Fold this sequence. Notes:
Elements: H1 2-9, H2 13-22, H3 40-53, E1 58-61, E2 67-70, H4 72-79, H5 90-93, H6 96-102, H7 106-123, H8 128-140, E3 158-162, E4 165-175, H9 182-186, E5 188-194, H10 197-208
Antiparallel strand pairs: 1-2, 1-5, 3-4, 4-5
Helix pairs in contact: 7-8
Amino acid sequence: MVHHLSEYLEIPLSERNTLLHAAGFAATYRARDLSDNEMAQVRAAIDWTLERHDPFPALALDRHWTVVRANSSAKIMIAAIGLSEGESMLSAITDTQRMEAAIANWDEVAQHLIVRLRTESTFVGGDPILESTANRMVEERQTRWPERTESLQAVVPIQFRAQDMVLSLFSTIAQFGTAEDIALADLRIEMYFPADDQTRQVLMAMANTT
């Protein structure tokens, strides 16, 4: 009954264990490490996806935005904000000075990240780390919201500063649709695409020189 209700209500796997305990049952769902032997095919799928997306950036993030895996382009991208694999992007996005130095339209991007943090927190039944990060960003930017006077774009690109140019990228997010593991259900693959021809040409040229 608990399993059926959880499926119907689309309750996250981690919360289903809590419900099972409350009903007197043992926890069903595990949180395996990606390095476990049981996860070999999952690792292979993630690595295949990231590698095939080069020369455009792609990375795998856990629930708290830790960079679990990144392709070569994404490693360069996150290095621009002082991060590497194994570190969480949450520590960077609350550092306004760091982000404004790396991203030309940080005010606009920050608004969307706050919404995303709260949406992800709500989906898992409330996550204090995600909520705390969103609140810190709101406090930091209370008087900094730009007025929207123009028509909205189809997607909001992230405009990375790169020496004397700006590289404009937008992202899509993929998840494992049939995950029965807590950690895997929380894992997201975020893939970035060029938002203009200049960005596409620069990234393609970088790939040809490596």
